[in-house]
Design a protein that fits this description.
The complex is a heterodimer of chains A (about 120) and B (about 500).
Chain A (H helix, E strand, L loop, with lengths): L1 H19 L4 H22 L25 H31 L16
Helix pairs in contact in A: 1-2, 2-3
Chain B lengths: L7 H19 L5 H26 L2 E4 L10 E4 L1 H24 L7 H17 L3 H20 L4 H32 L4 H9 L7 H15 L8 H4 L5 H26 L4 H24 L3 H22 L2 H32 L10 H4 L1 H15 L5 H15 L3 H27 L16 H16 L1 H17 L1 H6 L2
Antiparallel strand pairs in B: 1-2
Helix pairs in contact in B: 1-2, 1-4, 2-3, 3-4, 3-10, 3-13, 3-18, 4-5, 4-10, 5-6, 5-10, 6-8, 8-10, 10-12, 10-13, 11-12, 11-17, 12-13, 12-16, 12-17, 13-15, 13-16, 13-18, 13-19, 15-17, 15-18, 16-17, 16-18
The chains are: A mainly alpha (about 120), B mainly alpha (about 500).
Amino acid sequence: MHGLMSLVVGALFAAGVYLMLKREILHVLVGLTLVGNGANLAIFVASGARVAPPPLVPDGLDAPLAGHADPLPQALILTAIVIGFGVLGFALALARRSTETLGTDDLDRLPTTEGQGT
Amino acid sequence: MSGVDPHIWLIAPLVVPLAAAVFGLLAGRRTRRAVALTGHVLHIAAAAGLLYTVLGDGALAVRIGGWPGPFGIALVGDSLSALLVGVTAIVGAAAGLTSQLGERLPHPLKAPLMHALLLGVCGAFLTGDLFNLYVWFEVLLVASFVLLTLDRAPLSIAAGVRYVAINLVASALFLTALGLLYAKAGTLDMAHIARLVDGDTGHTLGGVAALLTVAFGIKAGIFPLFGWLPPAYPAPPPVIAALFAGLLTKVGVYALIRLYTLIFVHDPWAHDLLLWLGAATMTVGVLGAAAQVEVRRILSFHIVSQIGYIVVGVALYTPLAVGAAVFYLVHHIVVKTSLFLVGGVITDAGGSERLDRLGGLRLAWPAAALLFAIPALSLAGMPPLSGFFAKLGIIRAGIAADATWVAVLALAVGLLTLYSMLKIAHAAVLGPAPDDAPPRPVGRARLWPIAALAAVTLALGLAAGPVFEVCLAAGEALIDRTPYLEAAR
């Protein structure tokens, strides 16, 4: 399971980097999303996700069962997903605005500040 | 301040900008200005309280929610954090004041976003947890994304697209590194990791160190990852650019300092590599600056070069070197912010960014010319301004650490820095005014915050002895690590 998931992480990063190297703004954003998801999945795999009892204190005991699952990685991933979602929303709006304002979705043809001083 | 729990000062520099941002959003058109300025004043007061407490009583820490370490997220204030929070509050107030004085009707989101940016920066300086550091980074990044594109000008939008993309890459690398680190250490609490690596003699964290160095290197703008910076910073309006130039890269530098003095201290090759990177950064940055012909592009390349000095100080890894790096960091934040503010004044007065279309400021507006000269000479390292003592500290540390080549290189880079500053001075300030468009003073009120920052760099230079002592103590504490680890139990 971990071997397979590790391969998925690698595939997500590879596809993400490939897309990020393209010139169309939307391709780059999809690439960034894939890399972000790869990072989230990497946390999940690296922290040793496994089948284990939930980290809850059962009735009549004062500690969770031994060998319970570690809840922290999932809390981290959840936080990262929420942040990533917000930032992606902004990036998509920016991409739309950029294409409308600048008339191109080609990153190599965006204007730069160099030589723009008038 | 008896009777007050000193830990309140760790939280106050975060609560104040948060409240200022929220109330700034709620405020109507008439109260907006008052809310923004009150926020800055209270922020300075809170940061001063933190600095006073930390310098008096030593590092302090609080675990939010009262959970014991390493479960509760820690806020840790040592001398480094407290100094940086203090200077952040000052330059934030200067930028905020410039915005309020210079613009008749600032965008309603501008002041709240600036406070949100300050919140993220101060949070990053104060947190004791690496995942929390990631979250603060995102807070300041999202604020900076919106600030950068707020004016909707084509150039800002284009710069925003690049800036957002490169920062998302850095954040993804940061997150991946955190996953791997958590797998190794089982915690992301910085003090806890520091204690764990002490018992671990293998180089098992090398991969994590590499990933984090790249992630923070992108944000800090070190060689060879600085390519995004010079095109991005001249794009937004001067006030925003000044805030970015003063603070954003410095958060990346701070993270590097923290990592390489607290966690990655057992791999000598890492510090060697960092030394080469720092030396390359300061050289390439100043060569880039020397080749430019536009005011704010020159200043942007200088950021890169100055970051190199600070990284060299950290990489030398002696108390003197790290202390000098801390002093450099404080000096640099103040001077860079004021240079970008005054650069905006110069280009607005002359109506151009290009050196060949500027000139005559000395006669047309002597006050602005003087206020350019002070931070410019400070940046170039002229005594008795703060930059002289910052560079002197790094150079002395280089010689003392048997890295004379770095000291010689730092001297040479200092000369080139002076050259490119004189280039601006020669063309825009001292040179003859262009016939068709002589400079005219616009928005005189904007000079007051710049004058305040110039006074700070003068004070840092004139009181260099005591200030440097504080920074040296901070450097010693960083290398010793005990104060931090004792505080963040």
